[in-house]
Amino acid sequence: MFEKSLYDLIRGLRNHKGNEKEYIQNCLKECRSEIRSPDMDLKATALLKLIYLEMNGHDMSWASFHVLEVMSSQKYHQKRVGYLGAVQSFRPDTDVLMMATNLLKKDLASSHPTTITLPIAALPHLVTPSLALSLLGDLVPRLTHSHASIKKKTVVTLYRLALVYPEALRAAWPKIKERLMDKDEDPSVTAAIVNVVCELGWRRPQDFLPLAPRLFELLVDGGNNWMAIKLIKLFATLTPLEPRLVRKLLPPLTNLIKTTPAMSLLYECINGIIQGGILGDGEDFSAREEVASLCVSKLRGMVSINSDPNLKYVALLAFNRIVTTHPMLVAEQEDVILECIDSEDISIRIKALDLVQGMVSSDNLLSIVSRLMRQLKASSSALAQQQNGLDGQDLDDSSDDGSGRRAKSPEQAAPLPDDYTIDVIGRILGMCSQSNYANVIDFDWYIDVLTQLVRIAPPPRTRLDSDSLSSSKPAVDISEKIVNELRNVAVKVKAVRPAAVRAAEVIVSRLNTETVSSRPVVSGALKPLAWVVGEFAFQLSSPDDTLRNMLGLVPRVDYPEVLATCLQSIPKLFAHVAGDDQALWTPERKSSLSLLMARVIHVLEPLAQHPYLEVQERAVEFIELLKLTAEAASGQAPSTDEVQQDAPLLLTQAIPSLFTGWELNSVAPGAQYNVPIPSGLDLDEPIHPNLGSLLAQADSLMLPTQGDDEFEVYYNQRPAPTSISSGPAIERLVDAPEEVSSSYQQAGEESYLDADIVARRKAERRERNKDDPFYIPDVSSSQTGTSTPIHNILQKENGPDLDIDAIPIMSLDLEKLSVSGPSRQQQHQPRQPRQKIVIEADETLGGSGGNSGISTPGGRPGYDSENNSDSFNLTKSKKPKQKSLLQFNSSVLGGLSLTDEQQPDDGFAHERQQKEEAEMAQAMKEVQRLRLEMQRANERIQVAQGVPVEGIVVAKKKKKKVVKTAEDTGEGAAVVVKKKKKKADTGEGKEGEGVAKKKKKKAPRVVKIDDDEGEAVGSQ
Amino acid sequence: MINAFLVFNGQGQPRLTKFYTQLETSIQQRLISEIFTLVSNRAPGSCNFLPLPPLLAASGTSSSSSSATEQNDVPSLVTYRHYATLYFIVISTSTESPLALIDLIQVYVEALDRLFENVCELDLIFNFETLHATLGEMIVGGVVIETNMERIVAGVRAQGAVAKRPVNEGSRGGGGAGLGAMAAAGFQGMGGNFVWHGR
């Protein structure tokens, strides 16, 4: 049989381009058989091949036992392969590790330094608490091995051991410290120890203060830049605890800053000075002042435009750290930092964004957001161009590299990755909604930004596991967040509610017309949209069209939660459209309304069988209601010329009254917690004494599957006609000529808002200023019809043929118009701040003060809107934190003190544990012995009775006996059990206390309903 | 600490993967491909740091709210360098110095260049054991233990002779462009900013 070496495998891979999969499967099969062979050479080669394939993503966890076999080989080069296999393929759940302990012990005691290195280097990847416990004794002596390379590797391995088994450090620390203090120690061992100490340092800085003199010595005459960096990082965590260190550190650090040629060391010096709080105020003022200005100027130099991108990045990193402690220092650098937002490099952009988010104010919000919007717009249009392929002249021009490079328009920007786009949108929303919209001055602008964002937002990721139509929603749907903001504005800012509602209307109609009618609607944006258009239907410009759009969208909605909200909004819209009790009950009205009702019922009917109960219930309710109304309407004869008939009361009174009532206000996220539990309520009491059986009954009921339903729809029902919406006028303005100069107050908003939005803004501005005699309208717009009253009158009087501009009412011509641009801007400017807008705060109940900082009424600074990250973080941090990928867990070290020299009772737990283990082993031996005796006795009895020895019987008896004996043997075991019990007891006691306290807290809370609703949050 | 050290080529094929915490093979591959997408979309002249890949970012941002000390355990920095046909990636926590990591990669590549004499991708493909050995002389368990070139090279040689690439392969392979030359050039290129003295 021919066997492949790794070399053959790789060559084979290279020669099988195209059908690699098949080739690899064959190789894996070969490896499977080869690795079972008794020939160690063959085994090791097979393992090496498996490791190579593992690197390319082919699981080899099945081979873990064979890895152990190769590890135990006598030959070094095979052993090495075995250890490599263990490092690369062992996972926390690999169970053969238990068997490796002795092998590792043996290799650690080997006489060949290279062999000793193998287990030392592999242990950080494999270590478990029990393994750490049993190997600690073998590892610590290696700290004094004659080879420096073994010493330094051992130091690190001991540290990794301590991460899973903290007691290891207590045993090893004195030895490690000894190495560190030894001035004749090999410099690379010292450097490795410093690295480890640096990792330990930030966990328990107080334990390392005594080492400061030696560390300082190393910093001054170490002569090793790598080590110096780590030392500075370490000192940065020590100085807050020992302010006297600052005075000692400043001279060498300033010296380093001034002299070092290594940029990384320079950067870390600056970083260390800032982070260590050395910049702060203190007694030695002049020296610090000098250092502070030195550092900040160096950092500023790093960020500035022409510097190395790496320096830019790290300087921003440094600023990000400073900003929490010295926000003023960072704010001074706002100009250069803002420049970084537009950097071509996404890494730099993101870091700059992190910074900027903390720096927004009402002054710079507009400029920051417009910068970001411009980026997003450019990228989305670039994306659109890519997708459209080669249509249109513009694209041909831009793909021609010569002209494309010369024209430095933002349209040439490469499309940004979706994750980044989503991130940026999230940040924009966060910045704007911060502190209950304290920074937003112009809400009309904000609504337009939101409208634009909805268009830019990348579509939600298609669900990969779309096997069911269940309620699995994509985790992040940014467009839903955007429209949530729109809803928040509509609810909270009454002054712009009409504008917000109209924006929602436009988005709905776009959603309906622009998505393919056969495809399901996946945008989560529809949910808040549906709520807004339903709740504020009276402010829609065209409720009929919106209702039609909603009806067109509903059958295509995929997510049940969205569907439920849409279902609620349709009757609201219908009530508004149909429920006018002033209008006459004419034959036309009667027929059109019955048609409309039939249409609504037709759309809702399939949903009455929806698997999602909420949807089903709402659909059934509204269908029945509408059917009743339809009957009533058809029974009511229309009014004729003689007889005046009223519309059916059900239509004009009953249905609208369902939805009118108190206005809905936003409620603070924590308000629910502040509602006291009524005294008579026992939450533990079951709602129904027989709930269990009721639920069981419900389970056995078969719900009609959706499949049948779709089948029926497909064959027997007409598809819902997709409305050819006439759309609001704004939509038609898309193609309107754009000759107007762009010198309005938001200079360059065209660069990030779509043409139609810009056109609407202009139209609105014209509208606002039509009575302003100083406002000079555009000539081009005067021809489109909306213009000053004078024009209207003239047009009415004289007819459209007349050329109005020919009449010398105002002797102005086009040139003058364009000249007057800037002055117009000046006039307009002061309007903005004067705009006084009331932003309502979330409602909540009183007494929320201590309650986890959840929002308080009145829009105080602590307030955060729903989408704001801070409030999210608050709730998140309360949850048990999920361990992140690749994360080291060093939290166990936090509880370990190194300076407290071992107390006799709880020190050296590992020794104690060893003792216990020995006792355990003894007990086990005893058990074994007893078991054997029993078995023998058993056999004797059976033989005596003439019963054949049956395996099963014996086995059963054995088990019983073992349990019994284990219970009443060795004291050691008993002690262990007792201890565990004790621990459990105390734990429970604490828990009980906690519960009691919580209850106490809740009970006597006084209910006080704050009447802060409508408190003005003036935006001056 | 260093969470992972990766090497892959311009097509995203891994040449070395070393994770200092245990991780499922499938997740390893996902992480590699995410980083590859990030790295292959870098504009020329960008910095050597990547934004966090989605797999890491999801967990990274959520914990950024928690205490600053917790943050030191979470991978927050992805440093990369590009030599000829290969990308070298280091994923690390915030306790590492970003600029020093750039140099660490440089040291690694130079050490490989010493060991293989004008190293190229093919050497690395066929001798991935040596790649691991070299890395093992520099980083153990996520902590840097050696940055001195002589000692690293000596440490690897002590473990046995370093194999040369098969003679007939060098001329045929597409990925044979000299990495070593790039390493030297790279050092000069960055030299303006990253000069090490007393290493």
From TrEMBL, chain A:
Extent of Acidic residues compositional bias: 1010-1020
SUPFAM superfamilies membership: ARM repeat (SSF48371)
Biased composition (Basic and acidic residues): 763-773, 907-918, 984-996
Compositionally biased spans, kind Polar residues: 779-790, 865-875
GO biological process terms, semicolon-separated: Golgi to vacuole transport; protein targeting to vacuole
Region Disordered, annotated ranges: 385-417, 763-801, 841-921, 978-1020
Lineage: superkingdom: Eukaryota
Tagged with keyword Protein transport: yes
Residue ranges constituting the Clathrin/coatomer adaptor adaptin-like N-terminal domain according to the UniProt record: 20-628
Pfam families, A to Z: Adaptin_N (PF01602)
GO annotation, cellular component aspect: AP-3 adaptor complex; endosome membrane; Golgi apparatus
Keyword field: Golgi apparatus, Membrane, Protein transport, Repeat, Transport
UniProt keyword ATP-binding, yes or no: no
Location in the cell: Endomembrane system; Golgi apparatus
Chain's role: Part of the AP-3 complex, an adaptor-related complex which is not clathrin-associated. The complex is associated with the Golgi region as well as more peripheral structures. It facilitates the budding of vesicles from the Golgi membrane.
Family statement drawn from the similarity comment of this UniProt entry: Belongs to the adaptor complexes large subunit family.
Record note on quaternary structure: Adaptor protein complex 3 (AP-3) is a heterotetramer.
Name by which UniProt lists this protein: AP-3 complex subunit delta
Automatic annotation (TrEMBL), chain B:
Subcellular location, principal: membrane
GO CC terms, sorted: endomembrane system
Domain AP complex mu/sigma subunit: 1-159
Alphabetical list of InterPro entries matching this protein: AP_complex_ssu (IPR016635), AP_mu_sigma_su (IPR022775), Longin-like_dom_sf (IPR011012)
A family per Pfam: Clat_adaptor_s
Metal-binding keyword on record: no
GO biological process, one term: intracellular protein transport
Compartment(s) of residence: Endomembrane system
Keywords from the UniProt entry: Membrane, Protein transport, Transport
Protein family (similarity comment): Belongs to the adaptor complexes small subunit family.
Protein name in the entry: AP complex subunit sigma
